[in-house]
Amino acid sequence: MATFCRSLTLLGRPTSSLVYRLTAARQCSSGGPYEYILVDKKGENKNVGFIQLNRPKALNALCDGLMKEMGKALDDFEADSQVGAIVITGSDRAFAAGADIKEMQNRTFQECYGGNFLSHWNRVSTVKKPVIAAVNGYALGGGCELAMMCDIIYAGEKAQFGQPEILLGTIPGAGGTQRLTRAVGKSLAMEMVLTGDRISAQEAKQSGLVSKVFPIDQLVPEAVKCGEKIAAHSKIISAMAKEAVNAAFELTLAEGNRLEKRLFHATFATEDRKEGMTAFVEKRKANFQDQ
Ligand code: HXC
């Protein structure tokens, strides 16, 4: 099987569904190693799930196989009780240069619509554990959309964000028009989507798209550090906090406040809420059990 897959790969990129099924069945069923991503656990307590996009020759273009592997890795981290936060990153040159244009080039409307093209990308935005995008280099099209599906975006100082789909005769299809507009406001989102122009890390920080900018070599360590800080808290309470913040994008203020109040009340059903407040009163560090 390995020789067969290798010879197919030599004939061209292993993007056909047959090759993907062969390689994925062989490589993913054991939980890795993967073909398009590197997966690890980082931090002193190995409590930060780490996914690195690994298609350097294609600037981490997000082919179907890559996104399927990402979904599998996220499922594994979600089920791993040691992991309290997840970092997604790319290379110094590219977080991801978008969905794979070569894979999309000959697709028909019928295939896209009938096959619900890209629906599995949503997995990134449905993970309960906090996800941090660490963006160096290009985050374009689907790459920018992938970063925006994460909960926190940190950028390296040479990062560039953009939605250049208009230059390809299409529009963003994985939340770009929606999440970008909510993050940076209408005028800048319109400008980026309608011109295809990119913004720098500094502009992204100024406009609220990213929360912090770091020198390139410090970006990933800082993202892992942030992940470790989050992972030290109660996982169940972090999930509630994430759910409440995300609700701000979906609900009216009154509905959002009501949901927040219910979730706040729900924290009183947990051992960790009791432990957190007891630890404060007893002037010691809380020892959360995720209960
Ligand atoms: C497939 C890609 C790719 C992509 C780059 N490559 N982006 N392959 N899909 N999105 C490949 C190139 O074909 C080339 O491989 C190699 O990566 C290096 O790219 P170059 O163009 O030679 O590098 P450079 O001149 O440095 O330019 C970098 C770049 C440019 C500015 C990022 O590659 C670029 O504009 N890429 C496309 C960006 C884009 O339009 N993204 C949106 C995609 S649509 P070969 O083997 O050919 O030399 C999208 C839709 C989202 O994301 C909808 C929902 C998900």
Can you offer a commentary on this structure?
It is found in: Mitochondrion matrix. By secondary structure, the chain is α/β, with parallel strands linked by helices. The chain folds into two domains: 223 residues, Alpha-Beta Complex (2-enoyl-CoA Hydratase, Chain A, domain 1), CATH 3.90.226.10; 47 residues, Lyase 2-enoyl-coa Hydratase, Chain  A, domain 2. Bound molecules: hexanoyl-coenzyme A. Hexanoyl-coenzyme A binds next to helix 4, strand 6 and helix 7.
Helix-strand layout with pairing:
Blueprint: H1 2-11, H2 17-28, E1 37-42, E2 48-53, H3 64-79, E3 85-89, E4 94-96, H4 101-104, H5 109-114, H6 123-126, E5 131-135, E6 138-140, H7 142-149, E7 152-156, E8 160-162, H8 176-184, H9 186-195, E9 198-200, H10 201-206, E10 212-214, H11 219-231, H12 235-247, H13 253-267, H14 271-281
Parallel strand pairs: 2-3, 3-5, 4-6, 5-7, 6-8, 7-10
Antiparallel strand pairs: 1-2, 8-9
Bound molecules: hexanoyl-coenzyme A.
Short description:
The chain has 291 residues and is of the alpha/beta class.
Into which percentage range does the β-strand content fall?
5-15%
Mean pLDDT: 91
Described by strand count, sense and barrel closure, the largest sheet is:
6 strands, mixed
Give the distance, in angstroms, between the N- and C-terminal Cα atoms. 45 Å
Top CATH class of the largest domain: Alpha Beta
The gross shape turns out to be globular
The CATH architecture classification of the largest domain is Alpha-Beta Complex
Structural class: alpha/beta
Total beta strands: 10
Strand numbers in spatial order across the main sheet: 1-2-3-5-7-10
Regions with little confidence, pLDDT below 50 for 5+ residues: 1-31
Query: Would you give the CATH topology of the largest domain?
Result: 2-enoyl-CoA Hydratase, Chain A, domain 1
Count of helical stretches? 14
Which molecules are bound besides the chains? Answer: hexanoyl-coenzyme A
